[in-house]
Amino acid sequence: MRPDDLASLRTPGAATVSPDGSTAVVAVTRLDLVADEYRSQLWAVPTDASAPARPLTHGHRDSAPVFSPDGRWLAFLGAESGGKPQLHLLPTAGGEARRLTDHPLGAGSPVWSPDSRRIAYTARVPEEGRYGTAEGVGPDAEEPRLITTLQYRSDDLGFTVDRRRHVFVLDLPTDAADDAAPLADPVQVTSGDHDDSDVAWHPAGTELVFVSARHPRADRDLVTDLYACRPDGSHLRRVTESRSSCSAPTYDPDDLEGRTLYLAAQPDLGPDGLDFVGRNTTLCRVEAAGGHPQPLLDAERNDLGHDFGRVVVADGNAFVAVQRQGAVELVRVPLAGGEPEALVDGPYTVRGIGVGGGVVVGTVAHDRSAGELVAITPGRRRLLTGFGAPLQATGRLHRMREKTATAPDGYPVHGWITVPDGPGPHPVLLTVHGGPFSQYGWSLLDETQAYVSAGYAVLQCNPRGSSGYGQEHGRVVKERFGELDADDVLAFLDEALQEPELDDSRVGVMGGSYGGYMTTLLVGRTQRFAAAISERAFNDPVSFVGSSDIGFFFADQYLGTDPERIAAQSAMAGAHQITTPTLVIHSEEDWRCPLEQGTRLFVELKRRGVHTELLLFPGEGHELSRSGRPRHRRARLAHVLRWWGRWLPTPQNSSAAALPVGSEPAPDAVEEQEPRAVAQA
């Protein structure tokens, strides 16, 4: 895979399935490198595989499709180029989509009422005079912000205290098929200095349930509760009063009395509501009248992950995606009791779930596709799509191979090796994921494929601290950052280097976020690596506390509060010992691991004459490599390959070594607002 091959990536979201089970509709996203933006459209797919997928809409960026319960309508989000997503309504019998909303900051995903007459959703409500609500007043001319809370901004969003997210309900016209029928104004259901999310309808349409943090300590902990109110906002009540982090509530649509809610939750965050380290998110239930979330799956072994999507309840079952040692399984959980059943397991990553008419449709990724739709009916699974075909047709994708190494204390370290074509030994790139409570696994990672195509063997592992291996695996690094986890990473590297295909004399290390921390830490302890790339790193826990959007709790919970122990775990504390050539990559608007975390490392190395560069991306946040501007993602890959071409040249990646420092990585990567490369020492 080459940087330009990003344009061939096709990434489907979660599908919605028609009530009769005959059709799935899914949004498929692609990168438009020419226009430097993301495009997406809705595709319709017969679930019996009787015909190929066909485009259903041709908007600029259409997403979040949902069939109405009566099957007559498809609600979705549509955004024009440079615009915000707004609700749209498309008749399933044919016709044009109609725009329903005009929120200045955009609308959230639609949620149908049981009678198909109303749509609930969330939207951010800007403070008067901000975010373009006052004509002629740009961001630089707005009134100053007075901050009085710990939680006041979020990465990839910015300030939140002056644009709270609230619940809205929109009544559809009596004759929704009449394009001339006037639209009702959306009704704002919730208000106040809180963020509300994850709205769902009571099966009788009499009440809404949503997620919010409105308790007295809400600014100082991570607890979120379920709240309920009538569709007009009256009779607000708190459903859960616990120490849980609640999300994605839903009712059983067949229980018209709505006695039980199902949700995803971290069941217990401890007495201060902050003990999140290594806590699995699992499937729970709670009485709709009020109570504490009760796990339906063993919280020690079953983790839905931080991006699991939503809990789907249908036909007496709950359907969830569970992380499992690098895979993400589609699991059916009987609500009446009984053993959960994996509907999709093995070397796959389930990214979305839709159910309708007795048909389960999973969005399933693997190491050669960012996602395909698979229809599951009793005794049968059908592959419905081939969205990965354009990238597969390049012939530049490589298969992953599992490997398990042994840490010094005998602990198993699970991971993967991806090797280039042709005879070895190949130079090696050891990559470390972020989190740390996340996992590498069975999915198409564009970065890995680009490095392998450039001639590098790529090593990926899930050291202690990662998710998918049980809570103890994730929690053991608490106040022991850089100890057992570093041992695991190096043990995996050492064992992998025993293979003859890998060149143990030519090894580089790289990672982002927590992976950037581990990279900085390792090159401060050893000179074994030819070069390093530390990206968007968590380098200094002390300054992180006051600069990161999660700083008020993250470092304390992971590293503790004892100054000596913090220093022992800090990557920056050992930076004065780094002699390894190191490229520092950071985004200028990263609020998760703020820019100073990268610039301080660069300056430390630069002052001591270490070969170093600082690559800065304007306008980007922490998620650059996953959702940044398409041209920035391409430029990032090109610069990474340029760096490795200099310090670990290969036949496929040697010309980049001759590029002068700070020059363009490739003619097709010179764009407006190009990343800034600061020259090496």
TrEMBL record:
Domain Peptidase S9 prolyl oligopeptidase catalytic: 447-648
Native organism taxonomy: Bacteria, Bacillati, Actinomycetota, Actinomycetes, Geodermatophilales
GO MF annotation, one: hydrolase activity
Keywords, comma-separated and alphabetical: Hydrolase, Protease, Serine protease
Enzyme class, spelled out: hydrolase
Protein name per the record: S9 family peptidase
UniProt cross-references to Pfam families, sorted A to Z: PD40, Peptidase_S9
InterPro entries: 6-blade_b-propeller_TolB-like (IPR011042), AB_hydrolase_fold (IPR029058), Peptidase_S9_cat (IPR001375), WD40 (IPR011659)
Region of interest: Disordered: 1-20, 654-681
Organism: Klenkia terrae
Entry's EC annotation: 3.4.-.-
